[in-house]
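Run log, item B.
One chain of 100 residues. Sequence copied directly from the ordering sheet:
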Amino acid sequence: MQEIKPYYQKHLIVCLNVREDPAKDSCGTKNSTAIHQRLKDYVKEKGLGKKVRVSKSMCQDLCAHGPIVSIYPDNIVYSRVTLEDVDKIIKKHIDTLINS
């Protein structure tokens, strides 16, 4: 095993999980795919691929509060994220890296 440091400064993880029981809440049924894509598109558009990683995940155990976006190393979890919230996340966590 070898320990390495990630090359990116921020890692945004968007839950896309859809539960087997459609009667139960899940992030994947609440527009999380569009949220993930919007974040990825922005990072690519700004040329920040070497600084910011946007990943999708399965369940983060917060289904009733989804969609969920977790941000590291900030140790922040956003719940009930909407497409309108994505710009706030970008401004707070990604735009600060544009000129750094």
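Observations after the first pass:
- The longest helix spans residues 32-45.
- The chain has one domain: 10-94.
Flagged for discussion on Thursday.
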